[in-house]
Amino acid sequence: MTDAMTFDPSPDVLYHGVALRHVMELPVLGIPVRFESNSAAALAVVEEAFGIWRGLRTSPGLIAPLGVRVRLIVHEGDERDGSRVASHAPVTCRMPDADRVILHTPGSVGIADSRRQEATAYITPALLADRAHVQHSMIEGLTLVLVTACDRYPVHAAAIARGGVALLLAGPPGTGKSTLAYQAHRRGLRVLSDDAVYVQLDPELRVWGLPGRVRLLTTAVTHFPELAGRSPTFLANGNEKLVVQCPGEWPAAPAPAPVATRARVCLLERTGGSTTVSKAPASSSEVQAFLTDGIGLSRARFGASLDEALRRLAGAGGWRVSLSANPADAMPMFDDMLAELDAEGSL
Fold it and tell me: Which of 34, 91, 124, 147 is the most buried (most CB within 10 A)?
């Protein structure tokens, strides 16, 4: 596979003077990102990951004036560590301070520096040939480190939407957020994200998603037989999941962009053996406390600004939702919640 991964060589051993003649600019989550590379194959992976954001250019009011830069430099290297045959190269992540994140494999390395608003990665042909792996682990990871430092605060929740209103589905790992998101897609709702949303504070509260796909546990075929026979994808955290494309109408007009200006949070929980779904109101303090418990190392990166994002997001409260074993059971309730939120008007 690596034979097809052609790239422009460097004139020096340090790759200091390598020409980055392949360029792509995309407004990811409304933040202009300039991707530069010495390999067309690298930008083909960028296109697969973020090409949908080209459609945001028809809504210039949603695009920030300043952007970031990502350099993807393909270099000679080996992803084998001497003790195994190269397959999915293991990825290690380190964060020396709040501004920098480092990703590396046996033969590749990338660093994102949010203060400099720049990321640089040196990627082997072998890692680039493992397209899904390099996309999820290296290219998306480095890009999102930069973008989230531009008033796009990450919150661990799936999001489903109708029009400009959204429900955020928050819960511990294994609650079934992605499964519910895919079921909502099958029902005709928009899936803004299956795992994380990004909260913008200025000039107004906006909730952004990364649309286009859902990552499901392999056991999801129990509920979705049409997925039987699919091969799982190896993700950066070492898990294997089914990556299912969920194409929506956007960016075709008049479909709305993957952003909501009105949102409410559902706190998901499961009770053993339950065959019904139910909901109860959750106060803003309950919602904020629940979301705060899940921010992890994001606090080290964003500090008090992330707390403000969660406070704004939780401002109108939400619901506690008890789920059954069947994701389809929750859909009528989610429909009613979206209708209620739509009727309330702006936050």
Answer: 147
Per the CB < 8 A criterion, the answer to whether 334 and 160 are in contact is yes
Residues 242, 138 share a domain: no
Select from 169, 189, 144 the least CA-distant residue to 323: 169
Q: What is the pLDDT of residues 28-39, one digit of tens each?
A: 999 999 999 999
Domain count of the fold of the chain: 2
Among 123, 147, 171, give the residue marking a domain's end: 147
Separation CA 198–CA 97 (nearest Å): 21
**Shared-domain flag, residues 10 and 44:** yes
Asked whether 16 and 71 are in contact (CB, 8 A), the reply is no
User: Please, are residues 156 and 69 in contact by the beta-carbon 8 Å criterion?
Assistant: no
pLDDT tens, position by position, 181-232: 999 999 999 999 999 999 999 999 999 999 888 989 888 888 999 998 887 7
Q: What is the CATH number of the domain that holds 306?
A: 3.40.50
Question: CA 345 to CA 111: how far, in whole Å?
Answer: 42
Burial class (CB in 10 A: 0-12, 13-18, 19+), 333: middle
Query: Domain residues for 330?
Result: 153-344
Question: Angle at the Cα of 49 (from 45 to 50), degrees rounded to 5?
Answer: 115
- Same domain assignment for residues 187 and 243: yes
Identify each DSSP E strand in 29-106 by its residue range: 31-37, 68-74, 92-97, 100-104
